[in-house]
Amino acid sequence: MDVRPGTIAVYSDVGCPWSHVAVFRLLRARHTAGLDDAVTLDHRPFLLEEVNRQATPRRVLEAEIPVLANLEPDAGWQVWPRSPYEWPVTTLPAMEAVQAAKAQGLRASETLDRALRVAFFRDGRCISLRHVVVDVAREADGVDGDVVARALDDGSARAVLMREFASAREVAKGSPHVFLADGTDAANPGVEMHWEGRHGHGFPRVDADDPSVYDALVKRAAATEPGDRP
After folding, report:
1. Under a CB-based contact definition with an 8 Å cutoff, are residues 222 and 36 in contact?
2. Distance between CA atoms of residues 78 and 85, nearest Å
3. According to a count of CB atoms within 10 Å of the terminal CB, is the N or C end of the chain lower?
4. Count of CB atoms within 10 A of residue 228's CB?
5. For the chain, how long is the longest CA-to-CA vector?
6. Which of 55, 61, 44 lies closest to 3 in space, CA to CA?
7. Taking the chain (230 residues) in consecutive chunks of 10 residues, what is each chunk's mean pLDDT?
8. C-alpha to C-alpha distance for 137 and 135, rounded to whole angstroms
């Protein structure tokens, strides 16, 4: 596990609503603490479609979104507004783009990750499509969309994505799972939940939710020095 001081490694899938909440809370906690310049998110892929060997079912997200929108309504949500055949069956192009943006720095990658989540969960855009991903990159402040497009087209972004995912499977329990330089880690921080009924057919129930965990994470990340790592 290689996490730089002042950085929070976020293992997640851009199409995971639980990680949509986690990223939103991390960014909010960082801003509230006045640590925007001191803490950066390092997005690392945890590809749910590879782990589960299927596209994330629409019915699962339609059960999860109302529950999570109640936890964090300002994160940006709506139930899928388009036709069923327009549902994004893969998040690989979007997650490739997030890794490709790292060539411009972690902050550009962080910005694009958040923009793609909003494009999917709030705006109902099909982030399986190259042109949609590139459009989102070009719309995002501080991101050079042409650089991202070239990385998608020459295949370099896919190679990075799959290499990072291979590492992710060794350390991350799921999406989201965050790690700090001092060895601190938290899976789905602050949330305890279970499914009522069979997964994908019932509905998720949040048993406990403590958003203050995110305040502690960003402050701990900001306080970590190189010598603090085990």
Report:
1. no
2. 17
3. C
4. 13
5. 53
6. 44
7. 94 98 98 98 98 94 96 97 95 97 98 98 98 98 98 95 95 97 97 88 93 98 66
8. 5
pLDDT value of residue 199: 75
Tell me the DSSP string of 51-100.
Answer: HTTSPPPHHHHHHHHHHHHHH-GGG------S-GGGS----HHHHHHHHH
Q: Could you tell me the end-to-end alpha-carbon distance of the chain, in angstroms, rounded to an integer?
A: 11
Name the 3-class secondary structure at 228: helix
Listed in sequence order, the residues at least 6 apart from 227 whose beta carbon sits closer than 8 Å to its beta carbon are none
Give, in degrees to the nearest 5, the angle at Cα 190 between 189 and 195: 90
User: How confident is the model at residue 210, as a pLDDT?
Assistant: 98
pTM: 0.95
Cα distance between residue 128 and residue 88, in whole Å: 5
Per-residue pLDDT, 225: 63
CB atoms closer than 10 angstroms to residue 104 = 16
Phi, psi angles (nearest 5°) of residue 37: -90, -5
The highest-level CATH class for domain 7-228 is: alpha beta
Q: Which residues, 6 or more positions from 150, have their beta carbon under 8 angstroms from its beta carbon? A: none
Q: Measured at the alpha carbon of residue 102, what is the angle toward residues 100 and 108, in degrees to the nearest 5?
A: 110
Q: What is the rounded (10 degree) CA torsion for 146, 147, 153, 157?
A: -150
Helix runs in the chain, H state only: 17-32, 48-51, 58-71, 92-100, 106-121, 130-139, 145-154, 156-171, 212-223
